[in-house]
Amino acid sequence: MCCLTPVFNDWESFQILLNRLEFLLKDHDLELRVFAINDGSTEQQPFLETKLEVITVHLKLNIGHQRAIAVGLQYIYNEVTDYDYVVVMDSDGEDRPEDIPALIASAEREHSKKIVFAQRKKRQESVWFKTGYYFYKNLFHFLTGQRISFGNFSSIPKNLLGKVVHQHNIWNHYSGGIIQSRIPYTQVELDRGKRYRGVSKMNFNGLILHGLSSIAVYFDFLSLRILRVSLYGIAICFISVLYILYQKLFTDNAIPGWASSLILIISGIILQLFSVTLIVLLLQLSSRKNISEPKADIYRSFIDSITKANDEAN
Predict the structure, then answer these.
(1) How far apart are the C-alpha atoms of 126 and 310, rounded to whole Å?
(2) What is the Cα–Cα distance from 88 to 105, expressed in whole angstroms?
(3) I need a labelling partner for 26 at 20 to 30 A (CA). Which of 32, 49, 150, 247 fits?
(4) How many helices (DSSP H) and strands (DSSP E) are in the chain?
């Protein structure tokens, strides 16, 4: 089994993660290799006290959590052969190592035909974060028609990894890309752990961008929804104008003096909605035109060096 985790200046938590993984191996019959994706950390990787086989993939620059996961998945897919599952998890402790056997057991019950995600049934974050996450989930459902209640913590069977790494959208948002790709997946309820050390590197702006990235994965569906809403708006405005003109020209009903101004305002709204519809349509056509062949080997462009635990760079 391969354990993939991105790290950015969080080596103290990563060391604790390695210690927890060692305890996990004592209680379960598992063979484990850890692949740490050093996402352009500005802090030097310390000496790692571990008996595990740890391979650190050092990236040339910081490319973000989701892209670091995509690079790691492509590296394992192309460079590693002897494994059954790839477990994707965070290195800060919020994804608990002791839950890995539950993910693997669920994947085995599915005969390795589905990716298994950890669905959170109990979270450790603040009330503000839980409130924001609640609105994010509902906004995601409203805009995309899909529900998302899980993050990166997951188990990928080896036979599905090839499908995952050929998905463009995992470079923007890993879990959202899996949902959009229609690769079979299931969920298992697990509690979220507490961070080992320090504070999260994810600030408010980062959280907003992370949420927008998950929604951007569904640009095709989202553009169609925007088109539909714009067309409904144009239809309502057009009917309103016809109604006002009918009342003014063909009935004796008293029409306020501002009816002409209202018609001009509604006409302006129609023009704006038409412009939005045209822009979205052009963007959609452009995205279709620029679809490129999916490549599972672009990870090489991001890798600076590769080291094994406490060894010099290759």
Answers:
(1) 37
(2) 15
(3) 150
(4) 9, 8
The order of strands in the sheet holding 303-308 is 185-191, 115-122, 150-157, 85-88, 2-7, 33-38, 53-59, 303-308
- Looking from the CA of 42 toward its CB, the CA atoms found within 13 Å total 1
For 11, the 3-state DSSP assignment is: helix
Long-range contact set of residues 243-246: C-beta below 8 Å, sequence gap at least 24: none
Q: Which of 176, 216, 219, 170 is nearest to 64 (CA)?
A: 170
* Tens-digit pLDDT profile for residues 129-141: 667 667 767 777 7
Q: For residue 159, count other CB atoms closer than 10 A to its CB.
A: 10
pLDDT score, position 113: 94
CB-CB contact of 213 with 173 (8 Å): yes
* Rounded Cα–Cα distance for residues 261 and 276 (Å): 23
pTM for the model stands at 0.75
E strands present in 215-257: none
Residues 126, 104: Cα–Cα separation, whole Å: 30
> Does 191 score more than 60 pLDDT?
yes
- What's the DSSP call for residue 310? T
Nearest residue to 212 via CA among 162, 253, 173: 173
| Alpha-carbon span 219 to 197, nearest angstrom | 37
Residue recorded with tokens 């959170």 = 120
Distance CA 216, CA 69 (A): 18
CA gap 169, 174 in Å, rounded: 7
* DSSP label at residue 166: T
